[in-house]
TrEMBL record:
Name assigned to this protein: Sulfatase-modifying factor enzyme-like domain-containing protein
Coiled-coil portions: none
Key words of the record: Signal
Biological classification of the source: Eukaryota, Amoebozoa, Evosea, Eumycetozoa, Dictyostelia
Highest taxon in the source lineage: Eukaryota
Extent of the signal sequence: 1-20
Domain Sulfatase-modifying factor enzyme-like, first and last residues per copy: 178-466
PANTHER family, per the entry: FORMYLGLYCINE-GENERATING ENZYME, SULFATASE MODIFYING FACTOR 1, 2
GO molecular function annotation: formylglycine-generating oxidase activity
Protein source organism: Dictyostelium purpureum (Slime mold)
Length: 470
């Protein structure tokens, strides 16, 4: 792996060199133009590299090992978990390579940070492969690395009961890992944002189509959603019981010295060594802070575990459900508190003057103070009309759907929108903003995704839905 790492470093350095040359000047168009060539070249290098690396990984780490020992738990772990994982990363990287080389790549506006994100994707994938390799080599796959076969149900089931009838607020058990859930009635709403909103808040024009066309969605069945984001305490219980392991390293906000301009710049970068217990500087996490730096797949594993514990169905919210909950029958507005930025610090842990003082990021911050620079304990801010906290900011939240560049063809019944992207659905959607999100990204309608199944950030966490069957 050392050789691979130094090769990657060389790739990064050469990309970094090109990046520096494509001078970033005024205006979005200009930035896109100047980065265009670099992007395409960068894609080729990065994704060819990933393909080679995953293939190399298979040969070195798996096949050699398999040939020596190929029985029992180890064999099962490799075949049932590691192999599919490596295959899916390979598929993902070749999908992205194709996308990078297609004519309409730039029409899809992957994002202005593409160049930087490509390098981060590679680091994310690489650290995931490191984890798998370490598990295989150390034999620490036994017992319970990723499987949930041994999860104990008994205690939870015996203690499970509704705390409140009628079914408004409840927990499926008294244990700390059972989140408080709120029942959301069925109903309809209009999903998406308008040009008027985008113009009013200064949203970059190239992402206007992402939350359009507006369309009516009918949610036919009631369901329950977490009153709060899943907390560090709850996540720790999952890790403790299952031995589940996650790759190390996550993207976070950093102040970095800019060699070219001689200034300190604010960047969002993959940072070695970060993980959910230590997601960055300025993170004084208590056990009641939202768990962050988790991949979408980690959130899903947590939901599976909780489902087994409680005998109920927990899962990530569908994207339409998330927006339905957030809008809470208040009609069309930009934020849960109305249309102006004034409610920012009362309702959301957004990028305010306190965050600005720390990070100096020059974009539209909220002109208020809430005393928080990074994440805050869940429930510190006012809830929306359904009584749900931290929807618009604190941690951004994974939802279950696949990414689409707009709502053309979206389902109107609140179901999960998946299976597309040529059958590849590794790229999950994030909803809401985070403590580092400006006035136009804390909008209810805002949505985004990153083209790496392994993406994780100190800014992202999740909350869960619990299905209600009657
Ligand atoms: C800036 O970067 C260049 C190239 O990496 C390096 O040679 C130089 O020493 C750096 N300067 C400072 C002030 O760090
Ligand atoms: C917010 O703006 C929308 C669209 O202009 C308008 O329909 C709505 O009434 C406004 N809401 C508030 C609370 O001002």
């Amino acid at each position: 792996m050392k050789i691979i790492k130094s090769l990657i470093l060389i790739i990064f350095l050469s990309i970094g060199y090109c990046y520096g040359n494509s001078e970033i000047s005024n205006g979005i168009r200009k930035i896109q133009e100047s980065m265009k060539n670099f992007e395409v070249d960068g894609c080729k290098i990065v994704f060819d590299k990933v393909s080679k690396e995953t293939k190399g990984f298979k040969e070195n780490c798996l096949q050699t090992y398999l040939s020596k020992k190929n029985n029992g738990n180890e064999y099962n772990f490799i075949n049932n978990f590691v192999r599919p994982k490596v295959e899916s990363l390979l598929e993902e990287s070749s999908f992205l390579l194709k996308r990078c080389n297609s004519d309409d790549y730039d029409d899809n506006h992957l994002g202005l940070e593409r160049g930087q994100r490509l390098r981060d994707f590679l680091k994310e994938w690489s650290s995931s492969l490191d984890l798998l390799c370490n598990i295989v080599i150390s034999g620490s796959y036994v017992p319970m690395v990723f499987g949930l076969d041994n999860v104990k149900k008994s205690r939870a089931i015996i203690e499970c009961q509704d705390l409140d009838t009628p079914f408004n607020h409840f927990r499926d058990c008294y244990d700390a890992y059972c989140p408080e859930m709120v029942v959301i009635p069925s109903g309809s709403f209009v999903m998406g944002g308008t040009d008027e909103e985008h113009r009013a808040l200064g949203v970059d024009e190239h992402i206007w189509p992402w939350d359009q066309p507006r369309h009516q969605v009918n949610i036919k069945k009631k369901f329950a959603i977490g009153k709060y984001e899943i907390t560090l305490r709850q996540f720790r219980e999952f890790i403790k019981e299952t031995g589940y392991r996650m790759p190390i390293g996550a993207t976070t906000v950093l102040r970095v010295y800019n060699n070219r301009t001689g200034t300190l710049d604010t960047r969002v970068l993959f940072t070695e060594g970060l993980h959910y217990e230590a997601p960055g500087d300025d993170f004084a996490q208590t056990e009641n802070h939202p768990v962050v730096a988790v991949r979408r797949e980690d959130a899903r594993e947590f939901a599976k575990w909780l489902s087994i514990k409680t005998g109920q169905t927990y899962r990530l919210p569908y994207e339409a459900e998330w927006e339905y909950v957030t809008r809470a029958n208040q009609g069309y507005q930009y934020y849960i508190w109305g249309n102006t930025t004034e409610g920012g610090c009362r309702y959301s842990n957004c990028f305010d003057l306190d965050s600005f003082d720390r990070f100096q990021f020059k974009f539209d911050h909220f002109e208020c103070r809430d005393g928080e620079k990074t994440s805050a304990r869940v429930g510190k801010y006012l809830p929306n009309q359904f009584g749900i906290h931290d929807l618009l900011a604190n941690a951004r939240e994974w939802v279950d759907d696949c990414w689409h560049y707009g709502y053309e063809g979206a389902p109107c019944d609140g179901s999960r929108w998946g299976e597309e992207n040529n059958g590849i659905c590794y790229f999950g959607v994030l909803r809401g903003g985070s403590f580092f999100y400006n006035t136009y990204n804390v909008r209810i309608a805002y949505r985004n995704a990153y083209f790496s199944s392994q993406a994780r950030s100190s800014m992202w966490g999740f909350r869960l839905v619990r299905e209600i069957n009657e």
